[in-house]
Write a structure and sequence with these properties.
13 helices; about 75% helix
């Protein structure tokens, strides 16, 4: 990554912090104190770091999901729906399939990937078959997935004795191994790190990665070069959706241990900013995921220890997204 490419996301973050400070001043608080509280909440103790890494884990998978499709010239705004379907498929495997832990966890992860891949694959097929815009179909698929999960947890898989719209708790054999006692930090962060390595090698070292990159740069050139463009589009959406599905698996198998109506707190949409801020590269996605994970978890400290509402954190995230997206599309127009 060149120095110029590194400075652009840093500038976006700086501008977001400056404008965020102005908002904080307008509501009568000291921005330095608020930012210090957010930093302590995210990194001020072992438990805080663990909590930040839990959020970072999910952010990595949604960031990789968006980046994978984007590098093939596709805009996947349906990561939220893919996350929901991945979480649902993982939960079904984790609740109803009985296996020893050494097999159960991989089966549940594969199920989560398959659920997300199915949802992404439908979009890829629609684009190839009917030339349907993936930006429109992915948004629509979000709603369908969310309502499917709502139906399932209010009926077919609803916990028997509970009153809340959620499934039974998953079996212990399906839970991700805990790395730090009394926290929710699991081997999910290691799986996310492995996914970053595989993602980076895929784009740098494989023929399929090269073909997808050429397809993303110019589909006509790719066709003239003999690259099967439609196959690349479908494969890209399958893998992108699968990565989004794994984000849902992380939530179900590592954090919530069940699937519920409000499975995601908008993580799928955060993946867009995470990927763009990280320039769609493996290392960049890791650091931007850490930033968004820190804002998510550190924002809880602001809500608990200051009078400032959590909405300020969402304003900061929105400002980062705004500056990144504006810069990205300005460059593309050039």
């Amino acid at each position: 990554m060149t120095i110029k490419k590194m400075l652009k996301p840093l500038l976006s973050i700086l501008l977001a912090l400056i404008l965020g400070a102005i908002v904080i001043v307008l509501v009568g608080e000291n921005p330095l104190e608020i930012y210090a509280a957010m930093f302590r909440g995210a990194f001020g103790s072992t438990n805080a770091v663990a909590g930040t890494l839990v959020k970072t884990t999910t952010m990595i998978f949604v960031g990789l999901s968006y980046g994978f499709a984007y590098r093939c010239g596709l805009v996947n705004i349906g990561i939220e729906g893919q996350l929901y379907m991945g979480g649902l498929f993982s939960a079904i495997a984790a609740i109803y399939v009985r296996l020893p832990a050494v097999l159960h966890v991989p089966v549940c992860l594969i199920a989560g990937f398959a659920g997300g891949a199915l949802w992404g694959g439908i979009v890829g097929w629609l684009k190839n078959r009917f030339k349907a815009s993936e930006m429109i179909t992915t948004v629509m698929m979000n709603y369908i997935a969310i309502y499917i999960v709502a139906f399932m947890v209010n009926g077919p898989i609803k916990e028997e004795k509970g009153t809340y719209p959620q499934s039974e708790s998953i079996q212990e054999s399906a839970q991700l191994m805990n790395l730090l006692p009394k926290t929710q930090l699991t081997i999910g962060i290691l799986l996310a790190a492995a996914a970053i390595v595989i993602y980076t090698l895929y784009w740098r070292r494989t023929a399929a990665g090269f073909q997808m990159s050429v397809t993303g740069d110019n589909q006509r050139v790719a066709e003239y070069a003999g690259i099967p463009v439609k196959r690349m589009v479908l494969l890209s959406m399958l893998i992108s959706g699968g990565l989004g599905g794994l984000a849902g698996s992380m939530e179900v198998l590592g954090v919530q241990h069940k699937v519920m109506e409000g499975l995601s707190a908008g993580y799928g949409f955060d993946g867009i900013a995470v990927s763009l801020l990280g320039n769609n590269g493996g290392a960049g996605i890791f650091f931007s995921s850490l930033l968004f994970g820190a804002m998510r978890y550190g924002g809880n400290a602001i809500q608990m220890f200051t009078s400032l509402p959590i909405a300020v954190i969402y304003i900061l995230q929105a400002l980062v997204i705004l500056f990144v997206v504006v810069d990205t599309f300005r460059l593309e127009r050039k």
